[in-house]
Amino acid sequence: MCGIIGCLGTGDVTQMLIEGLKRLEYRGYDSAGMAVIAQDGMKVHKVVGRVAELERTLPEDFCGPVGVAHTRWATHGAPSVVNAHPHLDSKGQLAVVHNGIIENHRTLRSVLESRGCVFRSETDSEVLAHLIAHYYQGDLLAAVRQALRDVRGTYGIAVISTLEPDVLVAARNGSPLIVGVRDGGLLVASDASALVAHTRDVIYFEDGEIAALRADGLRTVTLEDLEVSKTVERIDWDMDRLERGGFDHFMLKEIHEQPEVIRNATRGRLLVEAGEVKLGGITLSNRELKKIRRIVITACGTSWHAALVGEYMLESYAHVPVEVEYASEFRYRRPLLEPDDLVIVISQSGETADTLAALREAKERGVVTVGICNVVGSTIARETDMGIYTHAGPEIGVASTKAFTAQLTVLALLTLRLGRLHYMTPETSREIVRAMAELPVKVERVLEHAEEARAAAELFAVTQNCLYLGRGFNFPVALEGALKMKEISYIHAEGYPAAEMKHGPIALVDKNMPVVVIATRDRVYDKILSNIEEVKARGGRIIAVATEGDREIRRHADCVLYVPETLDLLTPLLTVVPLQLLAYYAAVARGCDVDRPRNLAKSVTVE
Ligand code: F6R
To answer: Which of 149, 179, 233, 598 has its CA 20 to 30 A from that of 496?
Structure first.
């Protein structure tokens, strides 16, 4: 959840560290810090708050050719200067930045304290600095390796020491770590976005690997001290894609990128003329695919909502039974899995700790696993047996938007692929393929009406609670709309299947309660109108998401946000867009920090 970066160069690396931290800030931002090895020893600077504050308060003489930096999202110990990273050993010769959780930190701490180490912070991470110093005998790589053998937990770390100023040691276990190779030095970071300003040549690390970075290259070993040879890969992001491109916030930019995102997710996969799909990443033969008796989809948060839409799509159109599980539950409840099951894991980042653990659980049981990930080369993408990238590009806004539509697009493609093997006729397939090809233009049409969402958001300016209702394919969209609202505007929002409202939540409805209802024209339209009437009868304010051309709905709703007509299984790709805009504008109206909502981090790499 934190962001780490380390740089090793020939000149001063301070500015490079600051720039990298700014790019990583979406992963955690309650405090920040950095350390460099200067001519007169280790220099450390830490602040509570944002990277901008770190930069503003940096002492003038803060410079050096080797350094590490960190932006924190607190797990152990409150956000404070002492708890901010880097952490130092007792002599102040060694500095460590850490992303992850050291589970046995209490035991290690009491052993180290009994040997005279002086701890300054309440964090689990500080034990790493003391432990590495304890093992140091002239070789930093060896000391880190030995220390990590005592550690239980997850980590991505970068370590520097004044005793070996020409080396930076990095290691990973369960937290991402990437090395960037550039002219004049090496960089290491928890996320490629911190590297792309300097290089697109990267090296990915596997769990249990430790590397010593030097000006002339790097040496990688395992925890057992076996040499590992690494290859340099090229990432295809560029800087433009990481900038806000004229939008006030990354979230708004990413909402507006969705037409292009759908085009990218379908490019080369949607064969419109033939009415077919091609998914190169799915390496099972038709015979093997036909043998699948059940699909289990596991994910967290927004990706879990996408999984729920996937369940509706796959069961309705591919006639394969589907179960959707929170990854955090799946990993611990010893779920029943059969050899003919297929497990799909969905993750934007490809690094979510619970989703990764669920994937490993499924693999341990010998079930075939498919990943639907956005970040190329992420751990989940690499560990699944096969997969389909969503190609949404880097998602920087903490609230996920374009990743969701890309996931839905991929799930629709998978539905077509499996459906054609079972009961789906070529006509139905052609109809869905055509409708998918029209989606980007339809999303553009929804975006043209962003002003209406802004006006509707005024209803949320002072409210503390709201309700989201939907049915069928749009029930998970109601959940997703509510999640977006609570994440960035801090309004308490609940999503429900519309008919469930009568079984409890209706008690909350009064004249102060905005109720967002997804009421597109489909086979449950009349039922939804009845649900709307039930809210109106109790004075609730209705914001309806409806199908273009539906005038009737205006008689029932206080505000209507229209979306173009499409096939029922594809409506979530349209109906979610006004809900994203609604949450965005409500948060802006309430003065919230949209791209960095409180208490949240972009990638939840701890349990
Ligand atoms: C919501 C959000 C989170 C993520 C969840 C899973 O806006 O961003 O709920 O969807 O943490 O993350 P990934 O998809 O990276 O596994």
So the answer is: 598
Q: What pLDDT sits at residue 78? A: 79
Q: Which residues contact 326 (CB under 8 A, 6 or more apart)?
A: 298, 299, 300, 304, 354
597 C-alpha vs ligand 1 centroid, how far in Å?
13
For the CA atoms of 508, 514, 518, 520, the dihedral, rounded to the nearest 10 degrees, stands at 120
| pLDDT for 146 | 98
Strand pairing class (233-234; 201-204): antiparallel
Model confidence band, residue 499 (pLDDT cutoffs 50, 70, 90): confident
What is the number of the ligand 1 atom nearest to the C-alpha of 301? Answer: 9
602 is an active site residue:
yes
Whether 235 and 352 map to the same domain: the answer is: no
| In a shared domain, residues 210 and 269 | no
Ligand 1 lining (C-beta closer than 6 Å): 300-303, 347-349, 352, 355, 399-400, 483, 487, 603-604
Same domain flag for 32 and 18? yes
| CA 326 – ligand 1 centroid, Å | 12
For residue 125, the enclosing domain spans: 3-240
Q: pLDDT tens digits, residue range 104-132?
A: 999 999 999 999 999 999 999 999 999 99
471 and 397 within one domain? no
In this model, does residue 339 exceed pLDDT 90? yes
Domain count, the chain: 3
pTM of the model as a whole: 0.78
Indicate the pLDDT class of residue 508, thresholds 50, 70 and 90. Answer: confident
Residue 605 lies in a domain: no
Could you write out the DSSP letters of every residue in 582-597?
HHHHHHHHTT--TTS-
Structure tokens at 344: 């799909």
